[in-house]
Design brief:
The protein has about 260 residues and is an alpha/beta fold. It has one domain (about 10-20, about 30-260). Helices cover about 25% and strands about 20% of the residues. The protein has helices at about 10-25, 70-75, 95-105, 110-125, 140-145, 185-190, 250-255; strands spanning about 35, 50-55, 90, 90-95, 130-135, 155-160, 170-175, 195-205, 220, 220-225, 240-245, 260. The strands form two sheets. Strands 1, 2, 5, 6, 7, 8, 9, 10, 11 and 12 form a ten-stranded mixed β-sheet that branches. A hairpin with a 2-residue loop joins strand 3 and strand 4.
């Protein structure tokens, strides 16, 4: 849908008014940003620079598919359904407002992307150099949909993605996220080409603030770095495996081929 008629910038004041009216019509208050601040995500808050994020309701949970390459196991174990994602929010729940953002994007893509651009400009003015993760729980190829939305000198963009053909640039760093459908040969091909790959291992996540188990040093002959300690994927060296520990009750109960042996 976004590719058929890509978003175009409009006047920021008009975009803000459209978002306010949309929120009020759907039971919310008039003021709410589209981007979440650095302290909204514990891992992103450890990066050493301000990392903002755009948190949309994943897959088809909003009624619109924003994760076209997700799998049933991926959807069942999505970290969107843990931590703050399960909590309440003013006039609803965190997930209900994430869904509302998706619906606003579908209904008025021009206003949505204009507002994201404006919020990034204000954040860059406040912090100087900063980063933003545009797909915290979604997988939209923004570099094709609306590159003007984030083309700001001080802003570094990064994401995890399951799109097989998306490529990193100096402005938009991408880490390929392995799923249960990704073969070892495909992972080796990407790593050999210098692309970074995120892999979930059968290693338990931390408990009581301490790391319970260490990730493997290598996987398929490539070095593994710890992707759980911080989220600065744009600082990772090329051709490495970004190791992630298994999280979420559903994924712990049924890891399937999504989770690799350490």
């Amino acid at each position: 849908m976004l590719a058929i008629r890509p978003p175009q910038p409009i006047e920021p004041a008009e975009a803000k008014s459209l978002w306010q009216n949309f929120r009020i019509a759907n039971g919310g208050g008039p003021e709410a940003p589209l981007l979440s601040p650095p302290d909204a995500n514990s891992k992103m808050n450890k990066s050493g620079r301000p990392d903002y994020c755009l948190s949309l309701s994943p897959a088809r949970t909003s009624g619109h598919n924003v994760c076209p390459f997700s799998t049933p196991t991926c959807r069942g174990g999505c970290v969107a359904f843990s931590g703050r994602g399960l909590g309440p929010a003013a006039g609803g729940t965190v997930m209900s407002w994430r869904s509302l953002k998706v619906k606003f994007l579908v209904e008025d893509r021009d206003a949505f992307c204009t507002l994201v651009r404006k919020e990034l400009e204000l954040a860059a003015r406040r912090h100087g150099k900063m980063a933003v993760r545009l797909n915290t729980f979604s997988d939209i190829p923004w570099e094709e949909v609306a590159p003007w939305m984030y083309d700001i000198p001080e802003v570094q963009v990064y994401d995890y993605t399951k799109w097989p053909d998306r490529k990193s640039t100096s402005k938009y760093h991408l880490t390929f996220s392995a799923s249960d459908r990704t073969t070892d040969d495909q992972l080796v091909a990407k790593l050999t080409a210098g692309q970074n790959v995120a892999v979930v291992f059968d290693v338990l996540h931390r408990q009581n603030g301490d790391w319970q188990h260490e990730l493997p040093a290598e996987f398929l002959g490539f070095p593994v770095i710890d992707g759980d300690k911080q989220d600065t994927r744009y600082d990772d060296p090329p051709g490495v495996v970004v190791g992630l520990r298994i999280k979420g009750r559903k994924l712990l109960a049924d890891p399937g081929k999504f989770v690799r042996a350490a």
